[in-house]
Specification:
Keywords: Glycosyltransferase, Transferase. The structure is a single chain. The protein is of the alpha/beta class and 175 residues long. It contains 7 helices and 5 strands. The strands form 2 sheets. It has a 3-stranded parallel β-sheet. It has a two-stranded parallel ribbon with strand order 1-2. Strand 3, helix 6 and strand 4 form a beta-alpha-beta unit. Helix 1 runs parallel beside helix 3.
Length: 175
């Protein structure tokens, strides 16, 4: 965007300072202007012409800074901003884990024993010992890589979230 800033600014100055063009447009005595929100020069021209009533349209994604100027909320979680450096809209897993991180009061702890040791094969009393320990920290969310989806052992442990597969790099990168 920095590459376009100077040429767009120069074009805008040329338009606004073109007395012949401004006089011709002013002579039309506009009641209402309707314009594309391609760049902010549109607003400078409106100001120069004294046009107070206008409608701004956008045939594409709105530039984030324009939206903020107009009081339109930014919703990058499902409508990416034009020229945004953010990733495309969240995937299901990104939304799920983002929600877990945002709702955990004191943080998230990843519990994984790697690919070779499976938690499902642990003795029941060992699993219960982990769960009872986790229960003592209700404001912490424990993400446990657990290979069986419908194991009832987790019932009643509201701060434990299990998954057969967890995006470990993303989870650790969010810490």
């Amino acid at each position: 965007m920095e590459l376009l800033r100077r040429p767009l600014g120069d074009m805008c100055k040329n338009q606004i300072n073109d007395e012949k063009l401004m006089d011709k447009l002013k002579a039309e005595k506009w009641d209402l202007a309707i314009g594309e929100n391609f760049d902010v020069c549109y607003y400078g021209v409106l100001h120069r012409l004294g046009i107070k009533n206008y409608i701004t349209i956008s045939t594409s994604t709105l530039y984030e800074n324009y939206a903020m100027t107009m009081g339109i909320p930014s919703t990058p979680s499902f409508v990416p901003a034009m020229f945004s450096t953010a990733k495309p809209p969240f995937t299901y897993y990104e939304k799920k884990y983002d929600e877990i991180f945002n709702n955990s009061k004191k943080g998230v702890i990843l519990v994984s024993f790697g690919s070779n040791l499976q938690s499902v094969a642990m003795p029941e009393e060992m699993k219960k010992a982990f769960l009872e320990t986790f229960k003592k920290f209700p404001e912490v969310t424990f993400l446990w890589k657990y290979e069986k989806e419908d194991d009832n052992i987790f019932a009643g442990y509201d701060n434990v979230v299990t998954g057969k597969w967890l995006p470990q790099n993303d989870i650790l990168g969010n810490a």
